[in-house]
Give the backbone structure.
Amino acid sequence: MAIKSTIFKADIQITDMDRHYYEEHQLTIARHPSENDERMMVRLLAFALHANEGLQFCKGLSAENEPDIWQKSLSDEIEVWIDLGQPDEKRIRKACGRSRKVMVYTYQQSSARAWWEQNKSKLERFNNLSIFNLADESVKAIGQMAERSMRLQCTIEDAQLWFSDGDSAIEITPEVWKSAKQG
């Protein structure tokens, strides 16, 4: 018998001064049996950084042809594709062809840096691709905030993010490895 996903609930208040976005989201997050708290919280962090009413969690690890998070247009076209970890170049190429914007959030510093060095020259050509790296300390700290029911605050200003659960607050600055070209 297959192990089922664990359901988490997150009530997250987002104050994004960079985009002038101020909303509260009640989210249901299904954590895949092979996913740990840190990866799930990185998904939540990526959601907060790009939050809007159309952004939604996908099947992620359970579906090969879907990202972790996406936003679709009313005509079902993919506008935003967000992947976590170290996807292979073929997957990123396919995502860049299917979506207006693609973001990859890497973590696990040593393997992520090796992945980036190996794929950098192949990925530079994609104008709609952005790649960010999250420091190990930040990922570990947000992973410790994971609970089955969470109330979180997220403040974003000048590309810095403050994540708080009421008991502790973490400052996170994603390192930009590649920025999408504007246009």
The mean pLDDT is 93.
